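Per-record layout

source: Bacillus thermotolerans
name: Indoleacetamide hydrolase
length: 496
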Amino acid sequence: MKDGVDMKQSPSQPAAPHVLNHKGKDELWQWTATELAHAIKTRAISSREAVASSLKRIEEVNPKVNALVEVCAEEALAAADEADQAVARGEELGPLHGVPVSTKVNSDQAGHVTTDGIVAYKDNVASEDSPQVFNLRNAGAVIVGRSNTPSFSYRWFTNNDLHGRTLNPWEAARTPGGSSGGAAAAVAAGMMPIGHGNDIGGSIRYPAYACGIAGLRPTLGRIPGWYGPPNGDQSLAVQLMSVEGPLARSVADLRLGLAGMSDFHPRDPIHSSVPLTGSALQKPIRVGLLRDAGVARPTEAVNRAVDEAAEKLRGAGYIVEEVELPLFEEAYKLWYLLCMMEFKQVMPLVEQLGDDGMKQAAKHYYAVSEEWWGKDPSLSDYMKGYARRGTLIYRLQEFMQAYPLLLMPVSAEQAFEQDADIASVESMRRLMAAQWSMMAVPVLGFPAISVPTSVKGGLPVGVQLLGRRFREDTLFDAAEVIEAHATIETPIDPRF
């Protein structure tokens, strides 16, 4: 109970667990969250066993990858014991009961520092949990560690002067993504089955893609969250574009994570308690294949992944048709007006506290976006931008009456070379173009999922699905079809 609200009431129950299949999974850290939750609930294993296995894996691989910047071993084992006692007492259990998870170091966790990758914040101990962390605990999750993020959670590269660089377990010379790169690398390497992330410009979907796992950016308002000073104000762009969500090695675990994170919390100003499952879509379900919004042509590997995913969906009875939606290009550029120009208000703080990589990335972002919006857009430009946002949303909603799902690239390229964003303005221009969907989707506010498909040239590749608002269930259904035919397997040992 919090502020008179029963925080255990979920909008709906999660889907039933898949049939457990532990073949080839000798260690508990290799199990999915769905498998662990079911086994803990039925007392086939204990939460302590699951958490101890996770901590052992962290000890083995985190020094190589640097995905977690804090390991909460003693606290996690105590929480696991409490979880096991609750099972023994026959208490009502949350969907993530006893399952090890990580939280991102830009979100408040009581008794732990919220650094956001900033040296000056190294002693910034939180007094209470943020809504996203509260809900994970309330769902029964056991927090085993805090994941790395770039300074100010600003880049697609997870590196900062306080915690150092997180490496992609597939290839050290490639980014694990950002800003939830620590969470993605940890999940991909088997440190825990679910990692918490947040996404205002691709920070869940892109790290999941870069590390070969799945990631969900839910509908705006689906999962309550707070990103900002505990007693301060969130900016308008954060309120209207930033979301919290899970990263995992399976789509079933994303379902579980969404169920565990979606409960109401009074600190979120726009949360909506909408059932997790909606009415069945009319069949056959039509899927629009959006290969290129007119910004960046996908590489051969990305194109092949999209084609393979389309083929699998067709085989499952979906109708997949290529479409053109120029509104995505407009939304992509609009993000740099509504979000990045607003961020300029905190640039004096960035100049004071940010690291050199973050400052250089900011200069390159603005050098490119100023070509569209000028150096100092006016209040009128800003107001017109938000007005245009509403028009683009209703146009996409109209389109999705006929095509309730869209299939598109996550990025036009595979995982970028480390620090490609700060190499030059031209390099940043290439990256920004490749990431058009990373920025367009937050402007529009629709749910999207990143799902891996295969490995090309030693690096993961996958696709993105976008659905109607509050219809994450339809994304999961389609993503599971793609996942069933995927040739990529995680967790992996770091390949360096």
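summary: The chain has a mean pLDDT of 94. The longest strand covers residues 448-456.
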